[in-house]
Write a structure and sequence with these properties.
mainly alpha; Integrase_cat-core; nucleic acid binding; IS3 family transposase; 3 helices; RNaseH_sf
């Protein structure tokens, strides 16, 4: 991590809620993407992951975000501020 100038982030001791948002995302990604297809190579996986990330952020509607995608919700929140 140091070699690539990356700061390691850890949850506070004994607090499982610090990482709950990412744990939820990874659970969704596994069930909607990873477990539903097979990949021919690492490059194939990377290409498909990029497509899924675009879908997740730009197209996938979330009820918690007023039935908008994460990007659309952020844009509307910025315009309202």
């Amino acid at each position: 991590l140091r070699k690539h100038n990356i700061t390691q982030s850890m949850s506070r001791k004994g607090n499982c809620y610090d990482n709950s948002v990412m744990e939820n995302f990874f659970g969704i990604m596994k069930s909607e993407f990873l477990y539903l297809q097979e990949f021919d190579s690492i490059e194939h996986f990377k290409d498909e992951l990029k497509k899924y990330m675009y879908y997740y952020n730009h197209l996938r509607i979330k009820s918690r975000l007023k039935r908008k995608s994460p990007v659309a919700y952020r844009v509307s929140a910025e315009l309202a501020a």
